[in-house]
UniProtKB/TrEMBL annotation:
Residue stretches of biased makeup (Low complexity): 9-43, 313-336
Name of the protein in question: Uncharacterized protein
Organism encoding this protein: Thermomonospora echinospora
Annotated region described as Disordered, given as residue ranges: 1-45, 307-336
Amino acid sequence: MAAKKNTVTAPAAPAADIATATPDTTTATPDTTTAPASTARPDGPAGVVWDAVTANPGGTVPVIANAAGVARAVAKAELIALATSGRVVCTPGGRGDNGRALPDTWAPAPDTTIDTATASTADAAEATVPQAPAVTAEAIAEAMRIMQAEADRRAAAEADLQKAMAEEEARRAKVLADLARARTAEDTRRALADLLAAVTTAYAAVVAGDQVATVAGLERIYAEANNVRKASKVGPVRTGAKGTGAVRADRAAPRPLRPEVVAHLSAHPGKEFTPGEIAKVLGRSSGAVANALETLAKNGEAVLTSERPARYTAPTTTTATGTAATGTAAGDGDVS
């Protein structure tokens, strides 16, 4: 009898094992969703609540709900959702001084994103700013050398300017002195020429025996001599007490008074004068003129026409000619 063939088959593998053994040909799909930007405005009620939060940072739920125009419950729910997403932060209110609970406040969360374009621009700007050179001892020494050289240059320039100004002032002073000397020489020359003419005229009168012209010529000589002294700016030098050699003050040389009085009376024949009137004309004292007139009247060189007041006039031609020599000799020593 033939043996029976064993037809028992092995049990099938579990489905799980088959599935495991099967190669996994599926590929994972990458997550391409990105988190919303922190500055993007949400849609729907969250958007209006977000606008209210940004417009009222630190506001409470009633303030935000009123600004958003939604119910307080809706505003609080959206605020919680925004806080969960990190767009807003909630600050607990705590309790006040009276122990009562204070409402929480809500504000936009700080923006922690970095603007790479702005950062790059700032980095580029910083890179283009030139760095200041380091201050070294050599640089300081060079700066000090330049400053010292400038100070020396200024001192030299100032000295040159002062020297030029002094030379110019000396030149001008010399020119002015030369002009003053030339002016003095010219004035003195003219005065001497006038004096020479007066001397010549008086000398001719003396030679001719003309007493009136002689007296007038002497008066002119006195005047021109004074002009020479003024033009030459040289005054007469007189010594002091005998033997001392001291120089006295400048004053006019003494002049005979009687010839001047005779000349004045002769120049106005027929007119009567008081001693004061003649003194005013001659620039002499009235007392000296009165004394001179009395002497001239005694010598016949003047005629007393009135005693009170005393008036004098020139004598007639015949009387003057007869007494001229005597009167002149008597008057030579009168210098009052």
